[in-house]
Specification:
This protein is mainly alpha-helical. Among the domains are: about 45 residues, no CATH class; about 70 residues. The protein is built from four helices and five strands, in the order αβββααββα. Strands 2-1-3 form a three-stranded antiparallel beta sheet, with no helix packed on it. A two-stranded antiparallel ribbon has the order 4-5. Helix 3 packs antiparallel against helix 4. It is elongated and about 95 Å long. This is Membrane-bound ClpP family serine protease. GO terms for molecular function: peptidase activity. Keywords: Hydrolase, Protease, Signal.
Length: about 180
């Protein structure tokens, strides 16, 4: 008696299809799809500012399921003449491309600011380490000198050393703690 391998192949194909469906991340499905005025297909994470009839896909809905909600108009309001436009009409909503560019600029600006802060922190850490080393050397009696008015080195005496230790300690307290 010979067995058919068709049920095994079918089960394997179904398992592969199921795994492929599960492999698509949920955020990848959260996008809008529509045709622009020129008939080109547009994909975005921001809803379109175009006519709702051109929308092909909206987040959380399957293709073709998007039905825009139309405001209910009372019967007498439908017959009335349209209201004149206000002088201070709201500005038009940004296009998806403009919204994307705005988000991108904000992201780049935030990244540049974070990089600037990290650079400043690293530079401050180096300066503080140098200042701590200098203070430790002064306290341990390291020979130190300052440049004189003519550019020559003048070694610190005990009074000048104490003044330099106090000044260095004050700078450490102010900038490194």
């Amino acid at each position: 008696m010979q067995r058919s391998s068709a049920p095994c192949l079918l089960a394997a194909a179904l398992a592969a299809a199921f795994a492929a469906v599960l492999a698509v991340p949920a955020p990848a499905l959260a996008y809008w799809q529509w045709r622009d005025a020129n008939g080109h297909m547009v994909y975005s994470d921001v809803p379109p500012s175009t006519a709702a009839a051109r929308i092909l896909r909206a987040p959380g809905r399957h293709a073709g399921d998007f039905q825009p909600v139309q405001a209910a108009q009372p019967a007498d309001a439908a017959m009335a003449a349209p209201a004149p436009a206000k002088a201070s009409a709201r500005p038009a909503a940004p296009t998806p491309e403009e919204a994307f560019q705005k988000r991108r600029e904000a992201s780049l600006k935030a990244a540049a600011e974070e990089a600037r802060r990290e650079t400043e922190a690293a530079e401050r850490a180096v300066r503080c380490a140098q200042l701590r080393n200098y203070a430790t050397g002064l306290q341990q009696g390291m020979r130190a000198a300052v440049a004189g008015p003519d550019g020559s080195l003048q070694h610190l005496n005990s009074e000048q050393r104490q003044a330099e230790i106090l000044k260095t300690s004050a700078n450490l307290e102010k900038h490194c703690h």
